[in-house]
Every structure is written in C-alpha cells, then in structure tokens.
Design brief:
The protein is an all-alpha fold. The chain has helices at about 20, 25-30, 35-65, 70-90, 95-120, 135-145, 155-170, 175-180, 190-230, 230-240, 255-260, 260-280, 295-320, 320-330, 335-340. Helix 4 (about 70-90) packs antiparallel against helix 5 and helix 12 (about 260-280) runs antiparallel to helix 13 (about 295-320). Keywords: Membrane, Transmembrane, Transmembrane helix.
Length: about 375
C-alpha cells in the first residue's frame, strides 16, 4: 500500500496485505448467514462489545488523545465474549463449558492485570499522563512511514480501537462460536489436542510473564545495592541489562534465550488452540441445530485464519515486538547483540518466516 494512501485509514493491523484485510470487513455477513442461533449470538455479542468500547475506550481516547484505554477494553471484551458463549451456546454442554471457561480465564487474567496496572498508573483517575509506548510508536509510524497527516491520527486511533471491538465480534469470536454451537456429543481428536495445547500455552505464557517480573525485581534490587555502595558504573550497566542475555540467561530465564518474546509466542499459541478446537464443528452434522451451508463454512474457515493471522501481525508488528524493540534498542545498546543472537518470536527455527535477527530492528532490517 502506497504511503499517503487514504486506505491507511481502513488498514487492519500493521503489515497485513490489502488482500488479507479488506474481506475482514465482510465477516458479519458470514455470521448473519449462519443458522438462527449463531445469528442471534452475533447480534447480542456485537451489542455488548459496542456498549463496552464506546464509553470505556472510544470516548476517553477521543478526549484525552490516549489510546491506552484499549488495553483495558479489549480483555474485558474477551470476558464478555466468554460469558456470551456460556449463556447462548446451544452445543454439547461439556465442550461449551470447556471452551467458554478457557476463554473466560484467558480474558479474565488480562483484564484483571490491566485494571490493576492502569489503576496504579493513573491512581484510579482513569486519566493517563502519557500514552503507552506502543501507541506512541503507532503514531510515529502513522506520520513517518505511512506518510499520513498528524491531523488525521485521532480518526485512525478511533478506527484501530473499533477494530479491536469488531474483531471481538467476528474473527476472535469465530472459534468459540463454532465450538459452542457444535451439537456433536463427543470430542474429536483435534478438540482434545487444542484444549491441551491451550492449557500448556496459557501456563507457559504466565511463566514467561512471571520470569520477566522476576528479572525486573532482581535488577531493581541490585541497582539499589549499587547506588548505596556508590558504584555508578555497575548501576549504569544494570540499567541497560537485557533479559535473555548474560548474565540474565540462566535456568530461570531459559525461555527468554529461545526467543525475544516467549510471552507473545504463547499468547499466539493460545489462539491457535482455540482454532484447532473449532475445526471439527465445520464438519459436524449440525451446528446450532441446523446444517451449516458450505459457503458459510468456508467463511468461518477464513475467519479462523484471520484470527491466527491477525494475532501474528499484532504480536510482532502492530502493538507487540516491533514497538517494544524500537524503544529497547534506544535505551539499551546491548539489546542489539540480543537481537542478533536470538529469534524474535518463534522459540525454534521455522522455515519461510523472518525471525528479525538483525541488530537495530525494526529501524534496520534485511
């Protein structure tokens, strides 16, 4: 997409091709062409998501020019989606409660963490002194890379906020909807594999986040010791410490030596898991008490692909690794060595994917 194009106002994600994201706007047609139970679910969930995002995210963002509110609204939206799945899903009760429960735990953890973190940041005034770094980066990217006017950022910001709400209605809802309306009274092997993968991924994501917090605490404690002892050089070195790079690459921090963002990778794996659980529903005899038209089934298959693809783009480019590493490179010179040594996203070498093992990424790339 050319710099300065008006299509940037409608772009989803950061690096998805135009052919990938334009059809996403038509996903509601898939839900409204599905059996009646799924149609009703879609309309109820859409109403609830808008009722959340408009007052909690869109209006505060408009008046304060801060996009950070979306980090509160989006996980709460997942909780709402999970509750709707549990309330309105008409499929086999055990599958519905397992999938809905996993989604509730998944969104609930992030929602609770966001409320506590932002409450501490704002002293529960719900007013941010400055935007989060990833959204500051998004604004810079909008003006410098996309060559779009600064005066149009407020509109793009509202679009990207509502994009999250829209995805909670469509692509991110699709796996849970398919699973919770699947009438088959037994588990498929893919469903079992997906549920196991979700549990493992969710645990490892939390372990990754936990070891990162341990790193932050350990560095803070050592810096306090150095300041007391008057060792300015050691204090400066600790300020520029890199998780996953010696001496912070021991057993406790093992996952951070495999890739630079293991928490993002396992978050992505959680959504891959939901998609796996949903796939057998596309071949089930009935869905919501009715047969699924082949064209609608293909539409849901596309929605599942969007779920995986969007999260990959988001966690690497839009709000994940790229903005985080932009600031890490500026603040910690040793981070460039970490970039050269360690893959960005995948903990193992995956062919045909760019692992961004370039010093200075994202400013410098192959």
């Amino acid at each position: 997409m050319k710099p300065g194009s008006l299509l940037h106002y409608f772009q989803l994600g950061a690096k998805m091709h135009i052919a990938e994201w334009i059809p996403v706007y038509f996903l509601p047609v898939i839900f409204l062409s599905a059996p009646a139970g799924i149609q009703g679910f879609f309309l109820q969930n859409a109403k609830h998501q808008l009722a959340l995002f408009l007052p909690i995210v869109c209006i505060p963002a408009f008046y304060t020019e801060r996009m950070a509110y979306v980090d509160i609204g989006w996980p709460i939206g997942l909780v709402i989606l999970a509750v709707n799945v549990l309330r309105h899903g008409t499929g086999w009760w055990l599958r519905k409660w397992l999938v809905g429960g996993c989604l509730l735990v998944h969104g609930g953890r992030m929602a609770l963490g966001a409320v506590m973190m932002f409450g501490e940041m704002t002293q529960f005034t719900y007013r941010f002194r400055e935007d989060l770094p990833r959204y500051q980066y998004a604004r810079v990217r909008w003006e410098t890379k996309d060559k779009m006017p600064a005066s149009g950022w407020w509109l793009k910001m509202q679009h990207d906020i509502l994009q999250q709400s829209f995805l909670n209605m469509t692509a991110l809802a699709a796996p849970a909807v398919l699973a919770s309306f699947n009438d088959s009274p037994q588990f498929h092997q893919l469903e079992v594999a997906g549920l196991v993968l979700w549990a493992v991924s969710w645990i490892l994501e939390n372990v990754s986040d936990g070891t990162k917090m341990e790193f932050i605490k350990a560095v803070a404690a050592k810096r306090k010791e150095m300041r007391i002892s008057g060792d300015v050089k050691a204090d400066r070195e600790l300020r520029e410490a890199v998780l996953g790079l010696a001496p912070w690459d021991g057993t406790l921090y093992f996952m951070w030596t495999l890739c630079r963002h293991p928490n993002y990778f396992f978050e992505w794996c959680c959504w891959v898991s939901f998609v796996l659980v949903s796939l057998p529903a596309l071949f089930a005899p009935t869905l919501a008490g009715d047969q699924l038209p082949p064209a609608v089934g293909l539409g849901f298959l596309y929605a599942n692909w969007v779920c995986i693809r969007f999260f990959y783009d988001c966690l690497i480019h839009w709000t994940g690794a790229e903005p985080a590493e932009h600031f890490s490179v500026l603040k910690r010179p040793a981070y460039k060595r970490y970039q050269e040594k360690t893959r960005c996203f995948f903990p193992v070498a995956v062919p045909f994917f760019d692992h961004h093992q370039v010093a200075g990424w994202p400013k410098v790339s192959k």
